Amino acid sequence: MSPTIRLLAVVMLVALAAIGARAAGATTIGAPVNVTRDGTSQNETPLAVDPANPNILLSGSNDWEYNDGCGMYVSADGGASWTGALPEGYLPGVTKFTNNPDVPGTGAYDAGGDPVVAFSPDGTRAYFVCQAFNFTPPYQAQLLLNRGTVTSTGITWQTTGLTPISTWNGKGKTKGGNGQFPDHESVHVDASGRIYVTWAQFDGLQGTHSPVLVATSTNGGQSFSAPVKVTSGNIRNNQDQRIVTGPNGDAYLTFDNGLQGGKGTVFYVSKSTNGGTTWSTPIQFATLVNPVCVYPPYCFNISGGQFRAGGTYPSPAFDSSRNRLVVAYADIAGLYGQMYVTSASASDLTQWTAPQAIAAAPADQFMGELGIAPNGRYDVSFYDREYTSNQLVDLTYATSSDGGATWNHFRVGTAGFDPSTWGVPSSTAPFRPFIGDYNGIVSTNAFAGMTWTGVAAPQPFNLEIYFAKATP
Description:
Layout (H helix, E strand, L loop, with lengths): L2 H22 L3 E2 L3 E2 L7 E2 L3 E3 L7 E7 L5 E7 L7 E2 L26 E9 L5 E9 L7 E11 L2 E3 L6 E6 L11 E10 L5 E9 L8 E6 L10 E2 L8 E8 L5 E7 L8 E7 L10 E5 L6 E2 L3 E2 L14 E5 L4 E9 L4 E9 L10 E2 L7 E8 L5 E7 L9 E7 L7 E4 L28 E4 L4 E8 L7 E9 L1
Antiparallel strand pairs: 1-33, 2-33, 3-5, 4-5, 5-6, 6-7, 8-9, 9-10, 10-11, 10-12, 13-14, 14-15, 15-16, 17-18, 18-19, 19-20, 21-22, 23-24, 24-25, 25-26, 27-28, 28-29, 29-30, 31-32, 32-33
């Protein structure tokens, strides 16, 4: 090769490297914003964006400040700043308490949790579903929906008259075990305004029988249909159910299943073409090698100090530009938990792509959330230990512009933390290491927004909710 050709080759390589660097650097990650800004713990943080005004964002949490309740947070400036609900930070109409012992709540229940949020298609309504329960007989457990009125400056919520979705009165435990209660609900609103709420109904049979139920509303959440049971027969031990819809209104429900033991060993999908009135027989679409299970003392299969978190669950989104159902999840197929994505055509849910690693690294990744923007961009956030030699947990943002074939990923947080050394109040230990069972993500053409549980002093009782915006 002549010196001239070698020089041209070097110039081209440098130019290509510069283009690659610009492409990789085209995504900007905003500085994390502390949403909750207090001295006690919050975890489990959903996220929704107003489709008519993307400056309006809604989030929530399990708030452990005074008594367990659903914390609620609104941003009217695109996530730069956040305000809590009134009175005193809890979603109104659920609990007898607020997070201030001097201010009574406006609800009838001892506690609330498992918050999920959504907006109406026209952006005039916000929906917040909270699991409410009592600690004393008859141990009532209920899913309640609060309907908020949205303005350019925030959201005004009901203080009374919340809509019941699932109700049960009877003897049983309200927080697990052999009791009967609705758990891990999720909410989705389709383009017509129909509200879907789905949950696992622990029915007290053999301790792990948890059929998936779905209730719908076509009047803006003023009332809900009787729940429809999606699973039956051998499809039990279910959890982590979520619904997404396509442009034509077809609904897709994904959930994990323990195959009579274990956590989320396989994934199923069911489809409704009539607004949730009936659902197809669930199809098994993934068999996991070894799902990340961080639920001590029952299971903990990654290295380090033990803590509770979401681990592995299917996170679905619908790719309207490619007419595909896409699911992100964590699995331990090698030495470490890694995030994967798989997809199927909406017309054939029996044929799924081989799992594609999102950001392969020699460190554990888990608890992923998937969003797909209208323009077809994929966004995923997940907990990741790749930045500290698999020692500390950070949040990673990954994005794909080619339908999940290739990915770029970025560190979102500024410092990692050890979840085994932070947690929530406990009656049997100094604290309970628990960073929540899910995080939040939203995807618009202009940005991806993420919420997650991080930490701030004082340790160990100050888990905080954080928000960050990525601009691909």
